[in-house]
Amino acid sequence: MIHDATSPSDISAVALAKATNLLGTYKRAPMRFVRGAGVELFDESGKAYLDFASGIAVNALGYADPGIQQAMERAMQSGMIHVSNLYRTDPGERLAAMLTRRSFASKVFFCNSGAEANEGAFKFVRRWARSFGTDGKTGIIALRGSFHGRLFASLAATDRPAYRAPFRPLVGGVSICERDSAQLDLALDADSVAALIVEPVQGESGVRAMEGELLQHLRKLCNERQIALIFDEIQCGLGRLGSFFAYEKFEVTPDVLTLAKPLAGGLPMGAILVTEEIASAIKPGDHGTTFGGGPFVAAVAEHVVERLADPSLLASVRENGIWLGEHLHGIARRSGRVRAVRGMGYMWGVDIVDKASTVVEGGWDAGLLMTTAGDHTLRLLPPLVTGREDLGKGLDILEKLLC
Question: Do residues 80 and 296 make contact, with C-beta atoms less than 8 angstroms apart?
């Protein structure tokens, strides 16, 4: 049991692991949260924590949002939490229509998570490539620094040797290439490659945005060689960069788009958006999900999508994102312990001299939640509804931690 007077950073990971029956796949922070309000979480002692992590980019609308609560209550009035995808219901079909109206896509497949979305996308593009190519046109190319999930195919496309090694052999036909136009030109073979998957902003590897010229070059190569271009916007999409979709920010349109994290306001939901050409290759029985797109989750996601697509919210994220970047660069100049600052909108990486985990743990004591993106990178992902006053409070805490 954690005594009230004990600092969260003083509790050992071993003691915490012994205190729970949950499988130890996460090194959980020691504090126990009991409620949330606005952009803060509160532990069992009543201490408030300003949230610059958003549940890893999930809680875009913060906590105890009245609109989400009302959407959940309305969804419950039907009495249908689940009916399976053997039958039609309105919420999922309306949500798919909302997403296709706002995007390049003509069809949507709903699932339960980002990793599932990427796994499904890999299946869809292989099915599509076989519809006009040979049985050898199956390759999936990912980029150095990528993170696409921890299931077998998505893990094969994730550039984390330590994550991959214990679970080999992974899915075959998936390879990782340097973010270099010449090397990608060679790797994207028209006869053997079905798809290239790209995060417009790589989140887990340090918040590293793709170069616009490289993305445009890759779009051209994929068009010429009949290779599907997949954008993984699981972390950087749905408003986080100040545009509804991240691809709009980069002015490069993919053939397949994967979404998750904030899509249903914290309820588990992922989505795969595809063009008509790719959709036409998919037949009944090619893929499935028990829970994906169920009426309750989809009804809540309708509300969330409408909110995240609001031009005034997106404008606020863009404007505050510029302000946030300027102030982070100011902290970097004053502290002497910051090597680089990268990001846009409400997605920022701060490279520091110290171990990032040490600063994150210091934030627990100071009442600020952050996450890492590598050994020496702090990742800042505030809820998209965070105003400048709270952004400023978080920056003040961060500067004290770094100075």
Answer: yes
